[in-house]
Amino acid sequence: MNALECEFLAENVLLDIVPNFTDDVVHLICGDVGPFEASMVARVPAWLALYLKRRHKCRIVPPDWLTVNGIQEMINTETTQEPFSGVPAHFMELAHLLLRECSDDVPDSDQLKTLVHDMWDSRVAKMRTSTVKFLQSGEQRAELNNLTQMEITYARTSLRAATNHVNVLQANARDSR
Amino acid sequence: MFIQEFRSQFYEIIKQKKHALVLVNLDVDAVCACKILLYLFECDHVKFSVLPVSGWKELRDTVEAHSDQNKMMVLINCGGTRSLIDTITPPDDVVFFIIDSHRPFDLDNVFDDERVKILAKREEIDDLNCPPMNEIYYPSDDESEEDGNSSDSAVERSPTKKRNRMADIEQRVAKKQRRARWNKQRGDHLWNYYENSWYSVSSALCMFELAHDLSKSTAELLWCAVVGVTSQYVDGLITDERYISTCVDRLRVHVKRFNHLADSQKNLVDRLRISFDKELALPLYRHWSLYSSMEHDPSIVCRLRLWTQKGARDMHHFLADLGLTLGDCQQLFSALSSEQRKDVVARLQTNSDKYKLTSTVFGSFIASAGYCNSFNAADFARALGVQLEVACTGESAESNFFSALSTMSAFLDTRQKRRNPKLVQCGIETCKTFLEAVVREVYVAINQNHVLPTGAFLLVYMSQGPDLRFFTGRHSIASFARFLLRAFVTASANKFNGRPLVVAVPLSGAYDGWYEVLGIMPLNTADMDGHNKSFIGRAFDRVCDRSSVRVERDHFDSCLIRLKAEDRGRFFNALQAVLETVA
Question: The whole model's pTM is what?
Answer without folding.
Answer: 0.86
